[in-house]
């Protein structure tokens, strides 16, 4: 009797493609996606799947001729590319508050690229802005776009010239692809490159997908003791690291942080790792403040949203610090928060503006200028992944408590996740497990 094992049938229609087929079928059914988008190959995939099941049952009962017929069908479907292609699904932003899981055709793998199977992805404030308003600052979403950029995954394929990475490596992805030729890139300030292609920022597709193609030099190998979720957290952590570098945080700088959202909290962790002796953090939300306290803030101060309270609150904040405030980080970017930062910072200190809630601010700049307060800004980050990974691996920074919610990559999962993240409150980092 001709023995056809399940494993052999499985290899006829690769397991991976079956899994993909199943994902497509379930995800799109739940999604109530436009059925025109579910391609013919998915229907044939169903028949092929049944072929395997029927073949397996027949094999069990020993009817080998029947098995061969079904097996041939599966084999030919695979050969003709009717199943087993690169059916890759991604979360597409189609309109305001409208995200659908739909197929995403990857660009070809260049010689210096790698293909990464995404395993963990965190939702960023900018993703939520895109979701709610189809824009973030000056970046406007004009056509459907795949969301997401805080991610880590496993290398599935490497380009012909890639020497530094191998299939199976776990990597964290830096999302910004700069030109590497302009003067800013050559000076090492590549985050300011005018040609920057940043994942998940229009018009560039992001990474909330089964797989992405990414330059190998922007994929950083994770040591065994750093999880893929922690790898995905390198992106928000990078913002805190870059801000601390720009503000020259060290063992002599007392730090005030305004805003205890995800960026405020990563700035807190980074400032502590850079040696800041005393850190005070302020916010309007007591839930977020207690999280900041748990993460190691020395003092927390609850503030209002009323600009008239600035004077009174600055005194409260300075008392909470107990000594001079050397550096203030505004992780929000409202008139009130920046006014507080400029007023609370001691003579000769620095204010670093991270949050960009408003494009223009009205602030007491003159009084800050005569106290020689330096105002610095940051735009994303540069050269931060190796340090992030080292700080995570050595345990100097623990980002795990920031991950407050986890969702699966399904239509319902993405809808719930974005609503949760947009709701703020106790949601700090909302993470997808793919
Ligand atoms: Zn981000
Ligand atoms: Zn450049």
Would you kindly provide a written description of the structure presented here, covering whatever features stand out?
By secondary structure, the protein is α/β, with parallel strands linked by helices. It folds into three domains: 6-79, no CATH class; 96-233 and 399-433, Medium-chain alcohol dehydrogenases, catalytic domain (Quinone Oxidoreductase, Chain A, domain 1, Alpha-Beta Complex); 237-377, NAD(P)-binding Rossmann-like Domain (Rossmann fold, 3-Layer(aba) Sandwich), CATH 3.40.50. Helices cover 38% and strands 21% of the residues. The protein contains 15 helices and 20 strands. Strands 3, 7, 8, 11, 12, 19 and 20 form a seven-stranded mixed β-sheet that branches. Strands 15-14-13-16-17-18 form a six-stranded parallel β-sheet, sandwiched between helices. A hairpin with a 2-residue loop joins strand 1 and strand 2 (98-103). Helix 11 (310-321) crosses helix 12. The longest helix has 22 residues, at 40-61. It is globular and about 85 Å long. The two termini are 41 Å apart. The relative contact order is 0.11. Residues 1-16 and 19-40 have low confidence and may be disordered. InterPro entries: ADH-like_C, ADH-like_N, ADH_Zn_CS, ER, GroES-like_sf, NAD(P)-bd_dom_sf, SDH-like. Belongs to the zinc-containing alcohol dehydrogenase family. It holds the Pfam family ADH_zinc_N. The chain crosses the membrane at residues 43-62. Keywords: Membrane, Metal-binding, Oxidoreductase, Transmembrane, Transmembrane helix, Zinc.
């Amino acid at each position: 009797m001709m023995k056809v094992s399940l494993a052999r049938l499985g290899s006829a229609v690769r397991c991976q493609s079956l899994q993909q087929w199943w994902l497509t079928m379930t995800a799109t059914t739940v999604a109530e996606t436009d059925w025109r988008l579910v391609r013919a190959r998915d229907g044939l995939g169903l028949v092929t799947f049944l072929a395997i099941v029927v073949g397996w049952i027949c094999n069990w009962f020993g009817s080998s001729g029947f098995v061969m017929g079904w097996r041939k069908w599966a084999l030919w479907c695979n050969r003709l590319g009717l199943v087993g292609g690169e059916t890759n699904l991604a979360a597409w932003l189609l309109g305001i508050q409208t995200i659908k899981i739909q197929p995403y055709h990857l660009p070809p793998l260049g010689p210096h690229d790698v293909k990464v199977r995404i395993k963990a992805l965190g939702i960023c404030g900018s993703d939520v802005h895109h979701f709610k308003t189809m824009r973030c600052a000056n970046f406007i979403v004009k056509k459907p776009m795949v969301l997401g950029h805080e991610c880590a995954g496993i290398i599935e394929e490497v380009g012909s010239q890639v020497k530094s990475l191998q299939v199976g490596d776990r990597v964290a992805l830096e999302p910004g692809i700069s030109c590497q030729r302009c003067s800013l890139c050559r000076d090492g300030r590549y985050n300011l490159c005018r040609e920057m292609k940043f994942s998940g920022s229009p018009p560039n597709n992001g990474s909330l997908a089964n797989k992405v193609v990414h330059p190998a030099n922007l994929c950083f190998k994770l040591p065994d003791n750093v999880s893929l979720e922690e790898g995905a957290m390198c992106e928000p952590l990078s913002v805190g690291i870059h801000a601390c570098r720009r503000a020259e945080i060290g063992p002599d700088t007392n730090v005030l942080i305004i805003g205890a959202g995800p960026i405020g909290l990563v700035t807190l962790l980074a400032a502590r790792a850079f040696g800041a002796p005393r850190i005070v953090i302020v916010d309007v939300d007591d839930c977020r403040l207690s999280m900041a306290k748990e993460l190691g803030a020395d003092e927390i101060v609850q503030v209002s949203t009323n600009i008239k309270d600035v004077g009174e609150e600055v005194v409260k904040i300075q008392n909470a610090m107990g000594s001079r405030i050397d550096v203030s980080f505004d992780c929000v970017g409202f008139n009130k928060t920046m006014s507080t930062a400029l007023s609370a910072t001691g003579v000769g200190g620095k204010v670093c503006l991270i949050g960009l809630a408003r494009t223009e601010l009205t602030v007491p700049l003159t009084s800050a200028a005569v106290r020689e307060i330096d105002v610095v800004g940051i735009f994303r980050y540069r050269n931060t992944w190796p340090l992030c990974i080292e700080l995570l691996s050595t345990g100097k920074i623990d980002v795990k408590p920031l991950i407050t919610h986890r969702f699966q990559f399904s239509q319902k999962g993405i809808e719930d996740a974005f609503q949760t993240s947009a709701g703020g409150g106790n949601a700090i980092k909302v993470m997808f497990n793919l």
